[in-house]
Predict the structure of AAA domain-containing protein.
Amino acid sequence: MLLILTGSSCSGKTTLARALGDRVPGVVIHDHDEIGVPEDADTQWRNRTTEQWIRQALEHQDRGLDVVLTGQSPLGEVLASPSAPQLDGIAVCLVHVADEERRRRLDRRDDGRWPPAVLDSFVGWGAWHRGHAEDPRYRPDVIIDGSWAEMAWDRWSTWTKEDRRWDTYLLDTTGRSIAESVDDLEHWVMGQRAAHRSGQLALSKGWVDVEP
């Protein structure tokens, strides 16, 4: 299955994924941006790159391996990707952090390079992620407008937050140690794998044909 760790910058996704790889067997860890980020990266680039990773996850799937992918593609983008229905299972975790903590982390990580307006955009993107995780009808225009023409947004455009397939696990790293957050993440991964094996995973293969 494909397990996505999504969220805005400096929530802790990459750190947690690396630590998770040392704990959980049978998973391949990748970062969305490891194949390179062009200077003109935009929504369409993110869409196309997410599709590339889904195709790689399908190759790992054929070998019996799960993929944990960190990045900034939310649930709606993953589900709308052309090849998403071919995956045996999909699960998404939003790694979140409080606004002021995100600002502090960005400032430390990037040595104060970001002006206030850019920091605000990182924080705003994080807030949008949280709204999207809770409700598919929360500002879908943010990811749909200007997107890649191959995206199939109609797969979930009629869903409501009551649809069990609209399921993003929220992992808030604010004020918590890496060890505590990795414990929670490991528990989530093991739970999603168990749900998949037992046929209880909401986004198992065939999800796209279920009537909302």
Summary: The chain has a mean pLDDT of 95.
